[in-house]
Amino acid sequence: MTAPAEGTLQSVLHPAGWDAAIIGQFAWVMFAAAALIFAAVMALLALSLRRHAQPLRPMLWIAGGGIAFPVVVLSALLAWSTWRSAQLTPQSSSQALTISVTAKMWWWEVRYRDPDSGREIVAANEIHVPVGQPVYVGLNSADVIHSLWVPALAGKRDMIPGRVTGLTLRADRPGVYRGQCAEYCGAQHARMALHVVALAPEAFRAWLARQALPAAAPATALHERGRAAFLEQRCQSCHTIRGVAETARLGPDLTHVGSRRQIGAGVLRTHEGTLAGWIADPQAVKPGVFMPAASGIDGESLRALAAYLAHLK
Fold first, then answer.
1. pLDDT at residue 4 is higher than 60
2. How wide is the angle at C-alpha 152 spanned by C-alphas 149 and 156, nearest 5°?
3. Whether residue 201 is found in the same domain as residue 127
């Protein structure tokens, strides 16, 4: 099956995993029950407004509509939802694959473990998972309360500073599923998105192997100039590029930034032009982010730096 377009609705009504399907059933049942009750109330209202309506017996309606009906309906919904909730995937870190996600204002740091070398692989704003396998995502926050929510795959889970929580994701088919921070976290909360990319198991292993490699060497003189500009502008003070500068942790790891679908946590699609615009003045695109505008960089160096970063795949 081909992957859905990235514009796929971010909705619990379009599930692509077991847990999301259960949550979707909850939504449909609640919608249907609310619609039926609303229709019944409106019918009674219309009946009461009839000019020659017969007087109603108040105690009968209080006992039937105010006590018996809610008790029966709510008890049935409670019993059904309890039964279905027990079928949700247990939140256990014993899954074969564990991924760590740290929420930061306003982006996501994602960490994997290379099964061959045991080395940690650091990415940003995308979670890659194998199709058909439950993946445990360990969650924490570096600053304020955030919340990870990928409606097509699972429910939301809060991320609290100083506390590790977890969420199990399972995608039943390949695709790209949009997620969002679901807890207000500041000025750019609405622009704190991420994507879960579900790949066939073989494709996922190949992707992980590529991510474990250091940054690609410059392929052209333009890329050489871009790498030099990265160091001259002291971008390594905040960003890591494995094989070039490996100590910074304040901003996203850029080792394979060119392979990511978007930059700025879902703000812009990744290509040379958007990278150059983001580097030149991120505040114009996402006001309040901690990355300052580039200063003292000429146009040629800016274009070379953007071309070098786009080359890092």
1. no
2. 20
3. yes
